[in-house]
Amino acid sequence: MEEREILLTQEGLNKLEEELKYLKGPKKMEVAERIKVAREFGDLSENSEYDDAKNEQALLEAKIQEMENTLRLAKVVEDKVSTRVAGVGTLVKVHDYEFDEDVSYGIVGATEVNISENKISNESPVGKALIGKKKGEEVEVETPGGIMKFKILSIEKL
């Protein structure tokens, strides 16, 4: 299976490394302590606290492995961010014709999506449609909710 690189902003990379450090340190110790306490309850075959703690440990290990894999495949895009065209690491201000309003979208890698901050994935329909476009261009995007039409007003670094 071919592995694809995962695009991240520097901020996204820093958050991922910080979270991984927490999971491998304090969180892992917390789960280990839960297992130790649950063992003291006696018979492990009927010990739901022990089962829950072991399940949490397995989920934690899987998450750590996934994050390490993401970091291994990560490519930071900050150095190559241009404000001449929309791309990962840019903040694109557009005019949405349907709602007659201006909206800004931060285009980020798929692991950094945060809808409440209007950070959209470079792999989403809107993200894909904006990438490579310049200020002044109009963009039509087919989304699950229908066709959206934008005009790019400005592009800046995220």
Q: Helical element count?
A: 3
Number of domain modules: 2
The secondary-structure class comes to alpha/beta
Low-confidence stretches: none
Whole-angstrom Rg? 21 Å
Largest sheet: 5 strands, mixed
What's the CATH architecture name of the largest domain? Roll
Binned, the helix content reads 25-40%
| Outline type | elongated
| SSE run | EHHEEEEHEE
The number of strands is 7
If strands are numbered along the chain, what order do they take across the biggest sheet?
Answer: 5-4-3-7-6
Provide the CATH top-level class of the largest domain.
Alpha Beta
Q: Would you identify the CATH H-level superfamily of the largest domain?
A: Transcription elongation factor, GreA/GreB, C-terminal domain
Q: Give the termini separation.
A: 33 Å
Strand content: 25-35%
CATH topology of the largest domain: Chitinase A, domain 3
- Average pLDDT, rounded to a whole number, is 88
Describe this structure in words.
- The protein is α/β, with parallel strands linked by helices.
- Helix 1 runs antiparallel to helix 2.
- It has helices spanning 10-39, 48-73, 125-130; strands at residues 6-8, 74-76, 90-96, 101-108, 119-121, 138-143, 146-157.
- The protein is elongated, with a radius of gyration of 21 Å.
- It starts with 5 loop residues before the first strand and ends with a strand.
- The longest helix has 30 residues, at 10-39.
- The protein folds into 2 domains: 6-76, Orthogonal Bundle (Helix Hairpins); 81-157, Chitinase A, domain 3, CATH 3.10.50.
- Strand 6 and strand 7 form a beta hairpin.
- It has 3 helices and 7 strands, in the order E-H-H-E-E-E-E-H-E-E.
- 39% of the residues lie in helices and 27% in strands.
- A 5-stranded mixed beta sheet has the order 5-4-3-7-6.
